Amino acid sequence: MSSAAAPDQPPRPVHFGILGCASIARKLARAMLLAPGAAVAAVGSRSEEKARLFAADNGLDVAATRVHGSYEALLDDPDVDAVYLPLPTSLHVRWATAAAARGKHVLLEKPTALCAADLDAILAACDAAGVQFMDSTMWMHHPRTAKMRETVDDKDAIGDIRTINSVFSFRANEDLLENDIRVKPDLDALGALGDVGWYCIRAILWAVDYELPKTVIALRDPVKNQAGVLLACGATLYWADGRTATFSCSFLTNLTMDITLVGTNGTIHVTDFVIPYEEKSAEFHVASKSSFADLHIGWNPLPSKHVVATDLPQEALMVQEFARLVQGIRDAGGKPEGKWPAITRKTQLVLDAVKASIDKGSEPVEVAS
Known about the structure:
It is a single chain. By secondary structure, the chain is an alpha/beta fold. The protein folds into two domains: 14-138 and 321-336, NAD(P)-binding Rossmann-like Domain (Rossmann fold, 3-Layer(aba) Sandwich); 140-314 and 348-366, 2-Layer Sandwich (Dihydrodipicolinate Reductase, domain 2). It contains ten helices and 18 strands. β15 (291-292) and β16 form a beta hairpin. It comes from Miscanthus lutarioriparius. This is Oxidoreductase.
């Protein structure tokens, strides 16, 4: 029997299984409740009790949501179409490839892997199984991002992007710095680089339409904990045509989420690019063809503010888009959308090069292709 919906019926919702009860999974559970075309069918944890508690605490329909006391049991659930996987990075290869092998589409938390070779194993498994892969870089799906793309592409207003700067930091409390998986070398060995640095690298690549830089040089004197995990670091990226980008990321400084794109004709500023200040509205500022006012006592013209509203949170929009792609494969015999794994892989390649430069004492490292 075909699972396709009748022409006048909406497509059957994509049934998600949440594989692991990490704190970030709470946000995605909420997004799945809000997103059209999505439903939470099951939660899997290392104990059935923990999975049941997660479902109850996060507003899931306890009667309709199956709970599994192992990850294997969730992957074997025939009613699960897709898996959201928020496990520690060191476990991604094992469980993402297992999910793909069972025909489950994979929405994978970032950083997606410890290195590009590991990511390639995941992408190969998804490709072999014909399932959709997407990482969970949620700001990519906010309508502000699409509006900013229109602005970046306006050559009259912005010109050619030549310089990009990005910062993502937050001041972690002592408990996070001591106990969180992001500071444990056996769980998330990339530390701040993999967590907040991932967003900076993605934003930079987004700004240049995913053209890989030629070389990266890590900023000197990164901060590490006693186990050698990065707590603060950064790098400068260099393109063959002279474009440059610099980012810094940290668990040790005030909450900051800046991206600045400087073009030959204009500049775009965003001060909350990862998580907007407000859920239903986000803004960015554009300074175009700027010059000094008379006597150099101001600017002329003044920068313009652009406000973009959204009815759904960016996480729900991400889930909605992922569900749409899954429905196209499941119900209409479509092929997985290739742009998402390609963008993930480029992000990982730059991250790998930054890590290599850090490990080599800030020597230049060429970015692999």
